[in-house]
Task: structure prediction
Amino acid sequence: MQDNWFGKQQAATEKLKEFYIDNFKVEDYQVSHFLDPEINSFNSEKVNPSHPFLKSIHQESEYYQTKAETERRSSLPSLKILGGYAYRGSGSDPYGNVSGKFTDGFSNSANNALVGLGLTWNISSLHTNRQKANMLSKEAERLGYLENQYQLSMQTEIKALESRIVEQQKQLKKESASVKGASDAYEMYVARYKSGLITLTELLQIRQILENAEKSQIDAAKEFWEQVIAKAELTGDFDYLFTQL
Result:
């Protein structure tokens, strides 16, 4: 069982390195550090607007909104500017003499420029484009409502986690006091056992009480950190979380 828990500890440490910027070494931290009942949870109680999940929905909503605007504009007439330039030459000089040389064909040149406006309007797709634009706008609106819904849900979850963390801090203080009391009692019974006042069976019973108290404290601390991490995932405030480690 000890080897099994050691393997889980090593696996959890490797996963933690994904989020921890510095070189995290579990050997640098004592177990009592994580069982400290005085640890303060981070103060952020609001959903981070740049949370990856919310950000993806927001960007998708903006995409459909932009696409809808494109469809609306495509249903309008388009105005285009047309222009042209012509360069011509002939082999005739001003006196009427004509030359058959190739180079003389560019000697008597004439330049012309043409500028015009062109208006095009695809009336056949006017109704279709408007329908597409309305459909895309509705999809963008739906995603906007979905983003607000998830944000409200995450905000509610954060408040619930915060309340639970506060109560778990109280539990950790009581667990710490329970372990200390059981440890003191065990030390006292060890002295009585050495004096021959109690049997080994009675001493082992006290030892079992101490082990149960320690296990209860570890389970409470594990659950506490799980709630702290869950809150950090919603708020995105991992920097504060790691300052506590």
